[in-house]
Every structure is written in C-alpha cells, then in structure tokens.
Design goal:
The structure is a homotetramer of 355-residue chains. The two termini of chain A are 30 Å apart. The first copy, chain A, is 25% helix and 22% strand. In chain A, strand 13 and strand 14 form a beta hairpin. The first copy, chain A, has a five-stranded antiparallel β-sheet with strand order 1-2-3-7-4, covered by helices on one side. Chain A has a five-stranded antiparallel β-sheet with strand order 10-9-11-15-12. The first copy, chain A, has a three-stranded antiparallel β-sheet with strand order 8-16-17, with no helix packed on it. Chain A contains seven helices and 17 strands. In chain A, helix 5 packs antiparallel against helix 7. With 355 residues, chain A is of the alpha+beta class. Chain A has a single domain, classed as Chorismate synthase AroC (Chorismate synthase, AroC fold). Chains C and D meet through strand 1, helix 2, helix 5, strand 12 and helix 6 of C and strand 1, helix 2, helix 5, strand 12 and helix 6 of D. Strand 12 of chain A pairs antiparallel with strand 12 of chain B. Chains A, B, C, D: Its cofactor is FMNH2. Chains A, B, C, D: InterPro entries: Chorismate_synth, Chorismate_synth_AroC_sf, Chorismate_synthase_CS. Chains A, B, C, D: Belongs to the chorismate synthase family. Chains A, B, C, D: This reaction introduces a second double bond into the aromatic ring system.
Chain lengths: 355, 355, 355, 355
C-alpha cells in the first residue's frame, strides 16, 4: 500500500534513489521458461539513458543491469526476478546548494511534508531516474508478449507548439529511433530538435507529448468495472514523472463529436471500420489497435535564476546546476512503452484465469 | 483481481446489472462513529437519477437505497457497510431486439468474447447504471471528508463545441446545481441546454467534459511512485463509463508551455503563486486546490438507424429503443465527484499510517 | 485492507451483523458459464443452520438466500455474484442485558476498544452468524471445483476428550452427515452426542476438532514463498470464529518424528507411499490428498452465572440468555469445507495464469 | 499474486535462490525517521546463520547485508528499503548429483510440475536460505516496534520427544540465547543438544517446536473478519519452511476444555485473570500477551541412503551430501520472531488509520 508496486499477477516493486547505491526492482509473476535476452534489456535501458544525444542531459550513467535472481541457465524460473542498476556517476555535491531549498514545481516540499525527511540529492526517490526500474520490467514484459505477437510503438508527437498532425497509420513508425527526438516524421523531427536546442540555450525547458500504439492484442483483456484496460493504462502513464494528462482513442476530441460520427461500425469479421474506441470497449480489448497519448509538462529545473523559499519559509535565489534535460519526451518514449507493456502483461495473465 | 473493487484502506466493491435484482456494493474501511446522513446519500443519488430534467433519459428509476449493514443507532460501526438499490422500472423487453446484436461502440462484443455469455438487458454489468454504487460510496466518503474540511465541486465545462472559457476561480460554483446541464456559467448553460435538445431531436448524442475541484486538502496525500495521487484520480475517472481522457492542473496545455512559465513559485507560507501543478507535486498533495478535467464521448445508443452485425457476423439494421441520454455529462457530475471522494478518502486513510 | 475480503482471483467480501438487516457478500471472480445449483447452496446453508438437531442452538433462522447479481438465465456471467440472507428470527432484546457488559472471552471489549462503538446485539459483526456468507461462497466454489473432480470432506474428529483415533482412510466419510455430531465413526458419534447433551445440561460448553480432506487436486497449486497452499488454508481456517489451531499432514506429531520416518518415498508414478506431507510440498500441491485438522475452543457463552465487568470497569454478574450451542463443531463442518473450497478455488485460478 | 510479498501497509517482497547471486528483498512501508541500527540487523542474521554452533549445518555463509535504498544519513526515509545478501560460499556442485532426482519430501517435484523448470542447486527458491530476507525485514520491524514498547521472544520448546513443560511465565526468557538449542530451560537445553548430536550421528534428523511470546502490545490490532490478528500470524508462520502446525493461546488443548474453564475472566482494569485467549479476542489484540506455538517437521535431507525417483520416474538411490541441519528449530527461532514482527508491524500501521 505504500505505493511502490504496480500490477497484480505481473507485479513490479521498485526501489532506489537517484544518488543512493542504486535502483532496481523485483518482478513477481514473470512466467517461467522464457529465454532471457539481456542485450534487449540493455538496449531498452540505453534508449532511456542520459547522454545519448545532444538534446538530452549530458550526465553519464552506465546503467548496467545486474540480474540477482529468477533466471537459471538463461531462462526465467517463475520465481521473483530481481535486478539492480548501481549508481555510478552521481555527483551529489551538485545538489548541496538545494539541501534546504524547495525547488519550484519539484517534489521537495511535498516529500518533506509527508516524510519529515528528504533525500535532497538529485530529488532522491522523486527523481525520474527511478524509471530505470520500469524500463527493465517493461523489457521483460515485452520479451514475453512479443512471443504472443503483441508489440508496442511509442513516439514523440508534440514538443512545444510543434505538433505531429498525421495519424500513426500514415507514418513509418520504424523511423522513430532514427532521430534524436524520436519522432517518426523526419521533417518535423528536425524542427523539433532545432527548437529544443533553442530552448536549452535560453536555459529553459519545454513540454511534449508521446503517442503509443499497441498492436496484435487479443480480445478480452481488461477487468470491468474498475480495472478497465484503459483505466489501468491511464494510471500507469500518470505515474510517470512529469505526466499531466492521458487520453485514448478519440480522447478529448470526443467531447465535440456526435454519436453518429464517433460510433465504430462493425465489419462482419467483428473488426471495426473506424477506431475512435481506441481498441477498448467497456474496458475490454476488442482486437483493434490500442492507441493513446500522454502529455508531459516542461522540466522544472531551469538553468535560469529563480526565486523560491527554503525550509524556513525564507525567500532565496536559486539556479539549476548539474546536467538536465531541456525536454523529457525523447527519453520518455521507452518509459511509456514499458509502462504499457507492464499493464498489458498484467491483464494478459489475468485474462488467462478465465480460459 | 476480478476488477470490481477500488481502493485499499477505503474500498468499494460493487455489484449489479442494469436489469437484474438490483445494484449495490460493500464499503470496507468506513471509519466508525460517523453520523449517517441518509438524506444526503439520497440527494446524491437524485443528482444521478434518470428523469430529473428534460435533457436526460426519461426512464423512471426510484433509486431508493437500503443500508444492509455497518450502521448501528445512526452511526457507522467500522464494519462493512453494504447497501442495495433495487431495480424497479427496468423494461427488459426494450432490449430483446438486441439479444443477438452487437451494438456499435458498446461493450456487447467484448463482454461476449471475454465471458462467453452476455446479459443483453440494458448492457447488463456494462451499463452506466452501475455507477449508482459509486455515488453511494462517494456520498459516505464525502460525509467523512467534509468533517475534515475537504470539499468536492464538479461541473460541466464543455458540451460539444460549447466550452467554458473561464477558470473555476472566476465562477460561482454554487450555481452548478441551479440548471439542468450543471454548468455554473448560466448563459453558457442555457446555450448548452438548447444545444442538447437539438441533438436529441436529430436522434443523435454528443460528448462533453466535466471539471472537478477539490478544496481544503491537507499536504501529504499520495503514495509515490506508482500510487501518485493524480494517478489514482486518473484511474478512478477513467473507470467511469464513456470517459476518454483525464488531465490535471495544466494538463495537455503543459505540452506547449516552457518551464519558466509553468513553474509554480512558492510564497513564504509555502502556498504557490500559480497552480499549474494542480495541487500535486511528485504525486503528493501540496495543499493547493486540486483540479482536473474529464472527457466523455458521445453516448453510443442513437435514436437513428445504424447498420451493425449480430453474433454470427451477419450485417443487421438496428435502431435504439428505450429511453436514453443525449449527453451524459449533466448526470455524470455527481459520479465524478464520487470517484474523486473515494480516491481522496483512500489516500486520507493511507496517509494516517505515517503520522 | 479493512479485513472483510479473502482471496485474490476468487475473492469473497462479506458483510452483515447477527441482528442487522441481513448478511451476505460479493464473490468477485466467479467464472462465467457455470450452471447455478441453488438447491445445493441451500443444502449447504442448512448444514450450518441453527435448530437442525437436538445438540445445537435452538434458534430458528430461515437462512434463505437471495442472489442479487451475477447470474443470468441460470448461469454465472463472470460479473460479481452478490447474495443476501435476511435476518428473520433475531431477538435483539435477548441481548439488552449485555449492552454495557463485556462478556468473558467474547469480542465485546476488543471491538469497543478498536471501533469506539459496539453493536451489542448478538455480537454484531463478531457473531459466528457471519459465516453464512462463507458457506454460500464455499458452495459456489465447490460447484465449480467438483466439475474438475475436486472434493471436500470435513468431519468432526474430536469433542472434548472423545477423539477419533482412526485415520480418514479407515472411515466411510459418507457417514458423516448421517448423525447429529457429523462424525463418520457412528459409535463414537453416539458417545459424542450423549456427551454434548451432558455438557449442555450443566449449562456448559466444550471444544472440538474438525478434520478436512481434499481429494482430486491437481499438482501445482500454491504460490511460494508466502502464499504457500497450506499457509492460505491455515489463514482461512484461523479466520473462522473460535478456531485456536491448525495443522496439516503430520502436523504437531511431526515434532517428535525423525526424518527417516517422516519422508514420503516416491512411487515411480510420482505418487508417494506415505503422505506425512499432507499433499503439499514446498507450498505446492503434489497431487496426493490434502488433509488438515482445525481446533475449536469451547463456546464462550455459558448458561451459568459468571462474574465479569461492564464498560466502566465495574464487576457485574451475568448469565447467558438466548439460545446457544454447547459445542460448535457439528455446525462448523460445512464452514471448514467452505473455507477450504474458497482457498483452493483461488489457487486454482491463480495456477491457470502459468499455463 | 505470485506469492512473494507479505503484508499490506508494511510489505516485504523477497527474492533470491540459495545458489544464485544472492537473496534480499524490498520493504515497502517502513516509516520514515527511524534511526537504522545495522549492527542489530546483523546480529539477527547471525542468529539464523549456518555454522554458528556444533548442532547446526557447518556451511559457512557470510550473510553480510547491504542496504541499497531507503536510508539517508542513518535514518529511514519512508521510501522502499531494499537490501541484498550476496551468496558467497555456495557449493553448487554439491547438488549436481540431484539434478534429475526428486528428493523425498522436498519441493523438487512440485516446483518442476508448477514451473516446468527447476533450479536444483540447493533447492533454489524453495531453500530455507530464503528466510534471510525475512530476518532482515523482521529486524526493521522490531527496530520500530521496540520504540513502541513491543517485544518478541521466541524459544525452542520441543525437540523430538523432549518437551518443555513449564509455561513461559515460569522461565527466564533471557536465557534463550545462552545455549546452542535456544531453550530457556538450561537442563532441558543440555538434553536437547545431546539428543540432536545423537540424531546427527545416525545421519538422521528430527522435528521440533518453537513458542513465541509478544509483549507490550496495545489493544485494537487485527482486522476482522478475515484478517484476524491470529489468522495473519498463523499464515506468516505456516509460510516458513518445514512448518506443519500453528496454535495460539490454549491451542489444541482447547478441544478438551469446557467453557467454564476456558473463559478468561476480566479484572476491573480490563486485563484478564487467565489468558487462554492468547491475547486476542474476536481477532483483535486485547492487551494481554500474545503467545503461540509452531511445529516443525524433521529436515528432509538425510545423511542416509534413500530410494527415490528421477524425473523420468525411474527408481534411483541417493544420499544427502553437503552440510545440513539435523534439526531446524535452533536457527528458526529468529525467523519465527521476524515473521511475528512483520505481522504485528503491518497491523500496527493498519490500526493507525482508525485513530
């Protein structure tokens, strides 16, 4: 109940602080007999890693994963799969200046209020570095689900005012990983990259959005009435640092639509002609693509002077130090996919109890 | 795990079908010693009730609540509080024509796929009538939380293209319940009502949006990293029938904002000058107002001819019968409040274990 | 977390007080498509019912079950199955004399301490009448499991000093239901019945024990390391009113055994020659019979004068009124079976997620 | 649901195999601000450690704990507390001879049936070495609870036929740790030690029992009706390797007692004159001592020839190799205390939500 687990039959419990010994987690419920592809796990981690391109934070983190249990002779055993990623290049002293300072729109104040203690080094537990555990667990979920033909494709669909207007069906999603911003529209990607560089030059940051498409899903996943598939996907996305909104299928556009436009007519093979439902009806997958969008706020740490308060309530001046992202979405693409994979994996196993 | 419970320390388990014996639920975790205000519960139910105005479904449902346990001499006892609302005016034969038909954008097909059986009368379990249980549980949560000074105010902020442009601070939220659409801007409310009537005349339906504001919340509610307060609010909202999207604080607008605009500067009493954070930082309440928006799709049942398929995959014509809402948001206002109250109540009790 | 649910994939949430409106529960996770045999459910309730023989309480309770949801056209739908048993013959005034009195070895004092309020009528929620909900849920679990060839046979194996010395293999368990004490050894049963009558004449009560045998179980049920099959069976049994101990397989006798005696040698078909393991190894069923024993204390309500205290801490005299059991085990046989069935059902569904 | 977590508000999720990289766990729900006494944790681990005396296994295991997260500047932060104990002296080749063999009364066969794969080295996940994680989590629970005045004292009360007849009140429990068998009756302890040595000389093993006393507990812990305090204690104990039975208070002796003997009369300060209830009434602590007993079977690994089968169902001869315990109870004392502490800690935090 203390909030560090997600999932029921496929459950990730994560641990770790940005500047402690390391981060990691335990996956409980990994099916046995799955061949473990550690290179794939590492590739996924590398997609999230700082320092991978000119438009992300230049911190260097090795992010090498060590599997501690649950694998024997290259296969999963069905027992808890624990993993650890040691912190290596953490510069705690970069944070000594904020020891007694509450940074605006960070979690410094709320953690202090809740716990009466605060690991101020890099945000401690509230740091987005915590998401490495999610990426690892997501990689294991994908490893299993791709055997069932289920695939996850996330990509950046907006940075600042630069918005991808094409639908995902019009795009070649294999281009996502070919550019630094991870947008499959290469012209727009170039614009976005240039824009992010400008933003960084001002010492500023900017928000963004990621779309995710899940393909190859069978019908029947999702547990009404509270654990509807999109409700669990939404919670998973909203639990990612900096996320402010979630919509699936027609999303917020449904507000101004009429029923006669919005209804997805059936074909005689039970597929649908349109897919405003986003692959989910009544909380249960219908076999069509699931697609959803996630909104991220601009990073709160600025390379500009800001006025804020310290723990005594005194006004103080502060300026970001260290190495920070001007925009989180390029590195968050793999996190969105991971959280989607965790959620689908959990519902996949849950659905098996009905068969 | 079968999906009909929500919450941890304050948990609602709901049951019932739209045309079965009745609907109801069990609240486990209701604190003891709370004076039970059944009139209030009934008022809340009446806010959701069909037939309450010209722009909602004209079905007549008594929706009288019976408390089955957990109350003794007018006070809660701390034991499970079970309640039952009998179905009264259900016309099952209104649905015999869809027995073998999968209605577009309904849950008919997915339920049949998942369970191999389908209670076709009024959608059975997938009917929005299931939300009566939520309204009751929400009323009990509110009953407790208002003693702590915590209040919930939801209202309609958009129907079709008619969008409320004022912020909630500029409005008198006590006007919400004075009009049929439940929009606190009375001019806009009149426009909306007229628009919904037009839509109904065409036999059509339209989407809408609801905003909800939570005031009087203490700091410290929310459990990082997965049970962030807004993640649980989001899941609760997304579990409501017809919901397609959720955003809190700056929401989707954060995408195009810069950090320098978006950061909420602290005052020396730790309140913030702006509130793009929506009252939550790092997943934990910071004492500011929480506000969020929920998008609803247009109702799928149309009073128009539609082509669809039956369970054999044959194309069939169908037309909505019975009595349906042209737009769900006026009746959903109390449901949004209820789900918000359930979520806050759960986190309120969870936070107590730290004190 | 408030303790009124048991199970994960097959979950019972129960409600009700002995003298309130009624008792009941919600089963969440009942598989769909199971033909509902309500006569069987009623028969099971009748095995628990007061007034069924000369040696149990002479209270009259109709204990008629009403199904509120989850069944359509005689079959389960996979949605929550709610049920209600109205209280009928409750004589609350039988309890007015104990309104301010804490009865020895009852839950009066502890409920008052925990909740600050106490429904004194017949023990309220702490009454063993709460077990009707368990019997109903157990009946539904049995209904499903008997289709898989899994059967539950509980019987009284001790009352006071009268102990069944034969093993269950030496007995004809079909004789259990032929006598009032529910002991399959008819000579011993007659002795036990006579003994219970003597105890009742003194206005006294006596303890007892029940053995339960589960047959036809597949291998592979149970989730190490914490949800071992016998750990969940043990918890289920210990949650029954008046239970003081649980042992399975060799149980407490294993203490004085040597490994060379206790080890169960394998046959070449992987069955075992002996079964000290009680059908469970490493927390997982091995396909042999599961058998366990449950110890019940003597009923705390005596038809004798006792000195006790009231809520102010003043010494008061009291004497049991109303109609009480001199020994609970005859009526508890079906409860033990029900809790065993719930536990096995839950693990049966859990095991399916591995297949 | 995969069974490797225990607790709700104070939750341990454990991982690790006896011959893998290591074992450990995550404690989620550790209150913040507790001064961490790592020496105490290590002392607790040392009480469980192999090789500590002449009557336990002579394996050498360093069992050095590393804290990975959740502690900052010597205090707990309220975030997940992860820990790791690396395996050091594991001799996997000691087990190569059993690679394809199912050892009698071990979990080899059932794990293979359940998971289709088996880490045969030292039992893998089914090894009692898994309990190191429990001891660590128990140490943290004790660290918090001793500040509340709550203490745990377990001791060996029976080995084979040698049974402690005195009640715990007649004993000086501080003597428990002064002898190799951990029995506070020093004469009996000497007899037990000598007996265990004899058993070991035969290459045999023997069962035993442990009693545990919890003192200083407030009233009000335990959540009826399913999460009764003794039901959760029972489950916790039954989840320990080799446990066959659990009883609390009067336990199995209650079977042959009459109500007039068994009832615990109140004093005017609400304490009770006797304590057959074992400190728990209606599933809720009443402020008296909680005491219970746990039965352990004899270790299944014998230093004698045994006939068994291999995975093909062929009869094979085998003999234990490696270094094994002739009797588990001396090393299990700290495990029983740990599981008791975990359970009490969880209910302590749960009870706070009522205050």
């Amino acid at each position: 109940m203390a909030g560090n687990s997600i999932g029921t039959l496929f459950k990730l419990t994560s641990f770790g602080e940005s500047h402690g010994e390391g981060l990691g987690g335990i996956i409980d419920g990994m099916p046995s007999g799955v061949a473990v592809d550690l290179d794939f796990v590492q590739e996924e981690l590398d997609r999230r890693k700082p320092g991978q391109s000119a438009i992300v934070t230049q911190r260097k983190e090795g992010d090498r994963i060590e599997i501690l249990s649950g694998v024997f002779e290259g296969k999963t055993t069905g027992t808890p799969l624990a993993f650890l990623i040691r912190n290596e290049n953490q510069k705690s002293k970069d944070y000594s200046h904020i020891k007694d300072t509450y940074r605006p729109s960070h979690a410094d104040y709320t953690y202090d209020q809740k716990y009466g203690i605060r690991d101020y080094r890099g945000g401690g537990r509230s740091s987005a570095r915590e998401t490495v555990a999610r990426v690892v667990a997501g990689a294991f979920a994908k490893m299993y689900l791709r055997q069932q033909g289920i695939n996850f494709s996330a990509f950046v669909c907006q940075i600042g005012h630069l918005k991808l207007e094409k639908s995902y069906q019009e795009l070649d999603l294999s281009l996502t990983e070919t550019n630094n911003v991870r947008c499959p529209d290469l012209d727009l990607a170039a614009e976005m990259e240039s824009y992010v560089k400008d933003v960084r030059k001002e010492g500023n940051t900017v928000g963004g959005a990621i779309q995710c498409v899940i393909q190859g899903l069978p019908t029947g996943l999702g547990e009404p009435v509270f654990d509807k598939l999109h409700a669990d996907l939404g919670k998973a996305m909203l639990s990612i640092n900096a996320v402010k909104g979630f919509e699936y299928g027609s999303g917020f556009e449904a507000i101004s639509m009429k029923g006669s436009e919005h209804n997805d007519a059936f074909n005689t093979d039970f597929s649908t002609q349109s897919n405003y439902s986003g692959g989910i009806q009544g909380g249960i997958s219908n076999g069509e693509d699931i697609y959803f969008k996630v909104a991220f706020k601009p990073v709160a740490t600025l390379m500009q002077k800001q006025t804020t308060v310290n723990a005594k309530g005194e006004a103080v001046e502060m300026e970001g130090k260290g190495r920070h992202d001007p925009c989180v979405v390029p590195r968050a693409v793999v996190i969105v996919e991971a959280m989607a994979a965790l959620t689908i994996m959990d519902h996949y196993l849950r659905a098996k109890s009905y068969q």
